[in-house]
Specification:
The structure is a homodimer of 308-residue chains. The first copy, chain A, has 308 residues and is mostly helical. The first copy, chain A, has 16 helices and 2 strands. In chain A, helix 1 crosses helix 15 and helix 11 runs antiparallel to helix 14.
Chain lengths: 308, 308
Amino acid sequence: MSSVTDTMNVFADLQSEPPGDLRLRIDRAVTDALARAGTPPAPPRLARALAHATQPGGARIRPTILLSVALACGDDRPALADAAAAALELIHCASLVHDDLPCFDDAATRRGKPAVHRAFSEPLAVLTGDALIVLGFELLARAAAEAPERCAPLVATLARQTGMPDGICAGQGWESETQVDLSAYHRAKTGALFVAATRMGAIAAGQPPDPWDELGARIGEAFQVADDLRDAVMSAEDLGKPVGQDPLHDRPNAVTALGVEGATQRLKDILAGVVASIPSCPGEARLAAMVRWQAERLVPQPHARSRA
Amino acid sequence: MSSVTDTMNVFADLQSEPPGDLRLRIDRAVTDALARAGTPPAPPRLARALAHATQPGGARIRPTILLSVALACGDDRPALADAAAAALELIHCASLVHDDLPCFDDAATRRGKPAVHRAFSEPLAVLTGDALIVLGFELLARAAAEAPERCAPLVATLARQTGMPDGICAGQGWESETQVDLSAYHRAKTGALFVAATRMGAIAAGQPPDPWDELGARIGEAFQVADDLRDAVMSAEDLGKPVGQDPLHDRPNAVTALGVEGATQRLKDILAGVVASIPSCPGEARLAAMVRWQAERLVPQPHARSRA
């Protein structure tokens, strides 16, 4: 385990450096995947809807974490790590498209643009989510041809963290229950894809994934609290999506439970634990810097400034 | 290539034998997958919706073809073939659940039961489709642990025949276009999962898949014409789903184009070609019998009787 104090010293130099090289790798992998999916004879409107749902993209936090872990583990198969990062991002984008549907959040906007069901149609939004899920698994299979023994663990991990009973589908499914297992709900709804990020980063680089579970789970917990805070303190215009959805849909929320100040303190506590949970590995210091950089972005703007 | 006449002689003895052993294998693999997906802490209603969408199931034609091809190729990894068969069936069930949604066919019934969005809710129907797609890929990854080199080809094949630009998502996507590439539409909408069936059967048994493309494509073509015929000549009660959806949604249809007699003749012509396209393999005779048995079931009841 890292010492938090040692790691904080590394941050001092590195925390303002944006992960531009990782962003390039992720965007290139997503663009390549979309180009193949849109190759004739693809139906043109569905092909455009796939592009609309995934480009230019949001913060790409999950694939950035995945590549950061892969780098920390040696990144001996960078093409496979890139495919894994893009696969994870496509699954995340698919979940946003389906969550925005009229029967869920009925969101008009996403990432500052019309939601897919508004820009295209509801049938094309359902199909866009379906096709992005499938494309994620296809990317893994194609890239794993060069390291066949890594295919099954990558596909199994992405599937487990996406589907039932532990993945984001399960998380969303809890919102249709009258009696909610809150711990299972949060772990599945937000935590699952962060655990996928850390585990898949390790697998793509040929390392065992289990030591990376805790880091992913803690990042997921931090992200959930940060998202609740942003939803409470920022405007729909700043976020590019509707706010206040949790109280509207009667969903559990850290701000509702703890208040803004309480939730902000909770976020800071979790973030301290995140850094401490990085396993020993060759690229530990750089990974700690990256995690810290991502963590800074998690704290909503007004609070981030008050910490400087 | 088989001689049609030789193969017909084999059929004479075998065509009435139902594939009960295959049905057992498929049902057991589907049941096992559903049990894992529904393990606590799965959200209970979504778990029940997954079971509703997949059990007791329809004719299980696609996985039966997959296992028949695997057997013809030696079936050296029966657990992997079973997983591949169940994975393909889960993807097919997912497509039915999403196709039945209000924004597509708005079907009230499926397989004689309320459609998932009626029995549960529209959000749970969207999630059921998503979770079944994911579960399909998860099954392949888990079962391929014993034959890692078969994982990537199985996942890539199932993904290609499900997603964009060639799979059933693309097929459904064509229904949102004003200018339709009819050949691409039919190949993707109905043919894709039959090609998945024959290719995956070969891969699961360690054989090269390319020689099996033509058989899958021809079965898919026959199935499309047979479905159009059933839609035209049978009642909603007989079929357990609404009829007349193609004219209603202005979709291309063999009966609209050729009439009932013309479409029936076209189906017979295609079925003759199906048997002729079986590649040489150790289990060729048994496979031909199985294909013939499936083909008999494709011809709508009144016409099947007139052929006896």
